[in-house]
Design brief:
This protein is α/β, with parallel strands linked by helices. 38% of the residues lie in helices and 17% in strands. It is built from 10 helices and 13 strands. It has a 7-stranded parallel beta sheet, sandwiched between helices. Strands 7-10 form a two-stranded parallel ribbon. A two-stranded parallel sheet has the order 8-13. Strand 5, helix 5 and strand 6 form a beta-alpha-beta unit. The longest helix has 22 residues. It is globular and about 55 Å long. Bound molecules: nicotinamide-adenine-dinucleotide and uridine-5'-diphosphate (UDP).
């Protein structure tokens, strides 16, 4: 699918998604430079790659300029979970906006092709369902999610202006909820929260009635979509939705995780966070048509793999192990 031996920069490469991307790029025969400030990323995510002579890790904050020579850039750096991006909202907007300016400036100088990890959050709390790329969204510009949503929207603007003004080769993916091994156990996202709670036998924290919906994509499927998008002809700039179009309620997810772990955890209700989207599901027709891409891993299989990962992780921490999984 792609020519080998390119020099590829991955910002946010020590994070959940970035570490999987680095692995795939190395397996394709590329040289990978992982840049990360370790705000939410972990060295443990890339420890197994450090011995590879084609892999290099650099501690750097993309809010500051970076001078390296590369052929392609994947710009992933940005905290992704609501509790992490709301921890220091000004830094979140800076990372999205200043980070995009710095990485686009770098791409312009070295004439690199550049990919932006955008998000379904650009649609806000959508009133159109499922979300297509031509839907312009329903974002609250002053709410607690705005630092992330508006930062990512502005980054998209910058990508398309650099494309029009400087003829840069760009790719913009709007990523919907993705899960899998190496999610941070304390990142507050629904899949990691529910699995960790179930494995520990703690109450499962359902926000609101649990009738809000999401559509969950397994990490391997998502990374495959990114690689296809990057390898597509240059007129395929995006934005392009990448996610799993199988919608589920958050309550159904909780029940499925309880069943898969054999947990005795009970469901408890907590208040719904401000501006929490009611319904979210991607329309992936564009990705199907242009990239011949659609997710292959069903939710149950992806959850089993993710549960196995957290089970090992918690066992290593001396925490309770799952009653049904022994790995
Ligand atoms: P993550 O928090 O695990 O990874 C983000 C990485 O970026 C971390 O390693 C973090 O340390 C690094 N980082 C943050 N600020 C930085 C800065 N200023 N300079 C350098 N590094 C910085 O999150 P993730 O789930 O792997 O998400 C990766 C990207 O995908 C993000 O841009 C996110 O917005 C996007 N995304 C993810 C999802 C999802 O469901 N996981 C959904 C939509 C979009
Ligand atoms: N959620 C929940 N319990 C949790 C964590 C999250 O019910 O312990 C809900 C949350 O309110 C939201 C959905 O699960 O409706 C997905 O939340 P997440 O933070 O994973 O992602 P996002 O809201 O950004 O899609």
């Amino acid at each position: 699918m792609s020519e080998v031996g390119k020099r590829i920069l991955v910002t946010g490469g020590a994070g959940f998604l970035g570490s999987h991307l680095c692995e795939r790029l190395l397996a394709q025969g590329h040289d990978v430079l992982c840049v990360d400030n370790y705000f939410t990323g972990r060295k443990a995510n890339i420890a197994h790659l450090l011995g590879n002579p084609h892999f290099e890790a650099l501690r750097h904050d993309i809010c500051f300029p970076l001078y390296v020579e590369v052929d392609e850039i994947y710009n992933l750096a940005c905290p992704a979970s609501p509790i992490h991006y709301q921890f220091d909202p000004v830094q979140t907007t800076k990372t999205s906006v200043l980070g995009a300016i710095n990485m686009l400036g770098l791409a312009k100088r070295v004439r690199a092709k550049i990919f932006q990890a955008s998000t379904s959050e650009v649609y806000g709390d959508p009133v159109v369902h499922p979300q297509r790329e031509d839907y312009r969204g329903n974002v609250n510009p002053i709410g607690p999610r705005a630092c992330y949503d508006e930062g990512k929207r502005c980054a998209e603007t910058l990508f398309f202006d650099y494309h029009r003004q400087h003829k840069l080769k760009i790719r913009v993916a709007r990523i919907f909820n993705t899960y899998g091994p190496r999610m941070h156990p304390n990142d507050g996202r629904v899949v990691s929260n529910f699995i960790v709670q179930a494995l520990r036998g703690e109450p499962i924290t359902l926000y609101g009635a649990g009738t809000q919906t999401r559509a969950f994509c397994y990490v391997d499927d998502l990374v495959e979509g990114w690689l296809r998008l990057m390898a597509a002809p240059d007129d395929v700039t995006g934005p392009i939705n990448l996610g799993n179009p199988v919608e589920t309620t958050v309550r159904a997810l909780a029940e499925q995780i309880i069943a898969l772990t054999g947990s005795r955890s009970e469901i408890v209700h907590k208040p719904l966070p401000v501006d929490d989207p009611v319904q979210r599901c991607p329309d992936i027709s564009r990705a199907r048509d242009l990239l011949d891409w659609q997710p292959q891993v069903p939710l149950q299989l992806g959850l089993e793999r993710t549960i196995a990962y957290f089970d090992r992780l918690l066992a290593g921490d001396g925490q309770a192990k799952s009653p049904v999984l022994s790995l």
